[in-house]
Amino acid sequence: xxxPKLKFIALNASSARINPINSHVVGNPVNTRLESGVGNCFxxxxxxxxxxxxxxxxxxxxxxxxxxxxxxxxxxTNAVQNSDLPQNVQNLYQAVALDMNGDxxxxxxxxxAGSFGPFxxxxxxxxxxxxxxxxxxxxxAVRLLPEGQTVEITLGRRTEPRAAASRTIKLxxxxxxxxxxxxxxxxxxxxxxxxxxxxxxxxxxxxxCACFYWASNHPDIVQPPAPEGREDxxxxxxxxxxxxxxxxxxxNPSPAATPLDPGPIEMDHYEINTRWQExxxxxxxxxxxxxxxxxxIGGRPYQTQGELESQLNxxxxxxxxxxxxxxxxxxxxxxxxSLAGDLKNDVVSAFAELMRVAISEMRHLRVVNDVLxxxxxxxxxxxxxxxxxxxxxxxxxxxxxxxxxxxxxxxxDVLQQFIEIEKPSLSVxxxxxxxxxxxxxxxxxxxAAAIRSVxxxxxxxxxxxxxxxxxxxxxxxxxxxxxxxRTPSASDRLHxxxxxxxxxxxxxxxxxxxxxxxxxxxxxxxxxxxxxxGGLEDICEQHRSSGLLVVFKQITDDARFSPIDRxxxx
Amino acid sequence: VTVRVGLGxxxxxxxxxxxxxxxRLLVVPYSRIFxxxxxxxxxxxxxxxxxxxxxxxxxxxxxxxxxxxxxxxPTPQSISLxxxxxxxxxxxxxxxxxxxxxxxxxxxxxWEVARAAVDRLYTxxxxxxxxxxxxxxxxxxxxxxxxxxxxxxAAKCGRERGQPVGFSVTTNGTTLLADDVAMLRTNxxxxxxxIDGGRALQDVQRPMKSGGSSFAALGKSxxxxxxxxxxxxxxxxxxxxxxxLQIGPRFDDLMRMGFPEAGFSPVRSGPSGDSLNGDDWRxxxxxxxxxxxxxxxxxxxxxxxxxxxxxxxxxxxRRGFSMPYPCGxxxxxxxxxxxxxxxxxxxxxxxxxxxxxxxxxLDDPRRLDFLRARHVHSQPECGxxxxxxxxxxxxxxxxxxxxxxxxxxxxxxxxxxxxxxxAMAEKRPDWFDKSA
Lengths: 570, 436
Fold this sequence. Notes:
The complex is a heterodimer. Chain A is α+β, with helices and mostly antiparallel strands.
């Protein structure tokens, strides 16, 4: 019988080093990754920060009505009663509480005396905020008050807005702290209070906030709902703003987005609050108004498990090759220290994204090896697992055209080729779709899921390269962003060092893969470390500063790492 | 060439135990401790292949862990110098015959021999790791001039080489003078004071040859150090004989004297009739557990753990202590006799098969033979014991006194410590950080 998934809690240092749970976990779901969290990109979206200030004064909650108005929303009379406040102060609170219930009566904070950060200690009159040398608005004023320091507020009673106060009350208390000593929001906040103003702005926010960070089912730009079976026709391949006011009909998709300014065709701020239910759910980039049916993966299964394994070996080689050529491309960009302005921003972004994609290919290499191991383990009788670490000689062909693996600087042509390689349903994606259907047919659901995620990330690579193309495309002369670099010769010290370190890396990785988890974890971690910091990363950076292209030479004297041919397709 | 000593097939690889209603598992190699589901232990008991495989996987070395089969030959980092062959006390159970080792060591160590030993240690040691120099005897402070010279010289060598040096001394604590105390305070000294308990017991078990009270002499001599230890770390170590297995009251006596911690060692072998045997061990275990439980209860409320045996066991379990050797004898540690011979162990002065070399150098093939023979895998009865990498077979010198009942004590004590460890890890995790 298979080992069941068991609970293991490590209790000492040596048990923590070898967590047996590792051996059962194939991978984390995408939604656990850091980059998936909205709050990670836009900290603060977990709550509306302004709600903190509602409780800045003990026993009161207030509403920030506008830049010059803070209204008392409630008085916590129970807490007042149970407090140590002198009776005369308690009476003041109680008086406001009782009076607030009267028809048309409002109590507002008219003046605040306290320490306002850069504006110093002073008394401000809220009606007169705005001029220089004072906090610009009521919320900022309160925000500036340091926690724990004494604040005196003057409350005014009115039955007519903007009239003179018919009665005033002064209260003097320390400004409330929002966090307790454990860093947890103080219990004074009611459930939902901190996020209450987000509800409406949640839909509202789609209108104004920065693009492209919403959850994938609420994108900014989508394809309209298409009639059954006609999705591929050009008129249904249009891009439209998800928030368009004219929702159109399935037969009549609304106008295409103008990405620079979709404003005029979108619902306005108020409208979106009343028509939010018309916004469609989007799946796989297209709005949907009927029950979702997952698409059929079109890949033709391979005929035997042997064929599948040889294709997986090749797929691992493709990932390695892709990681290599993307690294070459990344380090062919000028170092950002030599650039300035928009060019610098574009090159820095392009470099970061190329590195991210290269690292993602390295993760795929691991996934493919894990899949291979699972196939070997489950074979009857089990077959030995040999780590797949041979670099592919060529990428899967594109419409019959061969794509040899050639390390090159990232010229527009080369970038175009990257886009083609990662394009959905073509080259690499085509290879994986056949692997996927074979795995599904052979009954490897976990491994199929892993390959699905590899394919999903391929789609992300494709989109990323489109962005890189947009950024670098703004600079018509490639020499503006390309580092003047020569191809290294066999005697270049750095080049030789790179090959040595790269081979060590492969060997360590192989040891780790061969041992499997948990035994190999240490080696896999070591391999990862060899790439970072003073390791390969540093050597690549030195190539760049010495005007050398980063080139990984083919290894020909070690069958475990020698280049691998593309297997013949059945 | 790595020398390996294999493990027999019937060696237990795990030990399951219950603590506070939860099933816990000690994986014997590398002493990995887990909370697990009872079903795993049931499957192990039923001999299910997947469960056995799981324990097998967990028994493999990971990271920097060394194979437990191998016979290592580490660089010497620590020596003890038998500076004195005499003692002013006349304890019956003394393994050293008051320092003369039955006539094997008849003169005190000379400065030339001591300096040559220190020089040799620095030559052989790994310069990136601290060295330790210990003083032993007889009563080391009967040759106090030599100790002062060696400390000064070794500290100077250490400074010149940029290599930290620590010192240790085992003393009966009855002859310290003010300048001895000053030296202990100003150097990194681990001071072990041999004292068996309160006045009555101490004076009976550790009589002064002159007829006076060793308890009184000790209090006067060690008192100032206990009051103000400076850099020194002072601990009491009491020897337990079969005539008095009560340890709780003595522990309290030692605490009252101002020792920050105290530990106990039972007599296992030696010339007198003091060695524990048979049922003594069961009684001694009960005593140890009683004292430990008391200390543990106090520790839960924030008190320090002052019972050395327990504190050390807990720290070792925290790390996952797992060694094929009980000590550094012949590996990283040697004891230099007054004639400059390097013995594997300070208890074996005068025993030829423990001589590993001398001030002129070490005989590595001899060391390897010594270590291979004493590897825990080479001890047939240890190969069947789950405690083999925690106890590691016990003191080489006392190996011949190993018996079912003495081993039963070790297992019983470790079983208790495993539970105590789980409790401490849960209730006072901060203790491990503080005492790291």
